Amino acid sequence: MTKAKSETTSDARSETAGGLRVVRTIAELRGLLAERRAVGASVALVPTMGALHDGHLALARRAREVADVAVVSIFVNPLQFGAGEDLDRYPRTFDADIAALDALGAQFVFAPSVEEMYPDGPSSTRVAAGEVASLYEGASRPGHFDGMLTVVSKLFHIVMPDVAVFGQKDAQQVFLVKRMVSDLDMPLSIDVVTTVREDDGLAMSSRNRYLDETERKTALVLSEALRAAADAASEGVDEALAEATAAFGDHDGVELDYLVIVDPETFLPVAADATGPAVALVAARVGTTRLIDNRPITLG
Ligand code: PAF
């Protein structure tokens, strides 16, 4: 308690004009949040890797709506990047991120160093994400979801939020986080916010900034394919997949990774004769940039 109080005072200069406070250590954040909880405040967490866009800001806004205190974490988690992936070049736009979060009234940004999160090097204890984690994103990025759930689990233990807010854009991530929370009896709820899109339909992503002008146009094929799947969904799974695949037909410079329709309850591929709510998932490489998107559909 004493420690938390002295840290609170000594770090007062990290507060921005709008009252947002940037916290770098676990001890300091725990102390500050304990003070808020002691007066009855509820806490919402938005885990991010920074390079914030309007999709992230929608999550932060939701956090402000559903809890008294909104904590946004900004941490590019090395554990969830594989060899040869974009860990080193992942966009880092810290000052702009802070300004945007300050403007919408978030109270805390937790921005720890890698050493603060993993003082003994990459943690040897990991959350095993289970069978679904080896499919789709997990098939292309082995170990990604174990690394993601490990850091999300650490953040949940550090922040102890009443609610954590995630974006539907990363549908498999959302499914696995919910599963972890349920399997491991974590005492919080998960709030999911609809994907935010550019005017032309491209799902917002921090990785969109890797795209050059031509690639940016090509990238529209993902949302177009999902729209085609949604339009054909009343005719059944095969037709929906055929129409979505056809959307990729005419495009150069894009390599389809997977296109699949899954059951939202199990996240496994639906049977050929499935009807009712489902989710169409797509991943593709546009130039050197790997993009994902998804859309709820209703199979007829
Ligand atoms: O979605 C992301 O940005 C990351 O996977 C997350 C949830 C912040 C964990 O590092």
How would you sum up this structure, described in words?
The model is unreliable at 1-13 (pLDDT under 50). The protein has helices spanning 2-10, 26-38, 54-66, 94-103, 114-117, 137-140, 144-159, 171-183, 213-218, 220-232, 237-247; strands at 21-23, 43-48, 69-74, 108-110, 163-167, 189-193, 254-262, 276-286, 289-299. The strands form 2 sheets. Strands 1-4-3-2-5-6 form a 6-stranded parallel sheet, with helices on both faces. The chain has a 3-stranded antiparallel sheet with strand order 7-8-9. It has 11 helices and 9 strands. By secondary structure, the chain is of the alpha/beta class. It folds into 2 domains: 21-193, HUPs (Rossmann fold, 3-Layer(aba) Sandwich); 208-299, Pantoate-beta-alanine ligase, C-terminal domain (Pantoate--beta-alanine Ligase, Chain: A,domain 2), CATH 3.30.1300. Helix 1 (2-10) crosses helix 2 and helix 7 packs across helix 8. It is globular, with a radius of gyration of 20 Å. Pantoate binds at residues 47-49, 77, 80, 148, 151-152, 170, 173.
Question: What features would you highlight for this structure?
Answer:
Pantoate--beta-alanine Ligase, Chain: A,domain 2, single chain, six-stranded parallel sheet, 11 helices, disordered N terminus, globular, alpha/beta, three-stranded antiparallel sheet, Rossmann fold
Contiguous uncertain segments of 5+ residues? 1-13
Q: Give, in order, the helices and strands.
A: HEHEHEHEHHHEHEHHHEEE
Small molecules in complex: pantoate
Category from helices, strands and their pairing? alpha/beta
Biggest β-sheet strands, sense, barrel = 6 strands, parallel
How far apart, in Å, are the first and last alpha carbons?
Answer: 58 Å
CATH topology of the largest domain: Rossmann fold
What value does the Rg take, in angstroms?
Answer: 20 Å
CATH superfamily of the largest domain: HUPs
The CATH class of the largest domain is: Alpha Beta
**In the CATH hierarchy, what is the architecture of the largest domain at level 2?**
3-Layer(aba) Sandwich
Shape: globular
Domain tally: 2
Order of strands, widest sheet: 1-4-3-2-5-6
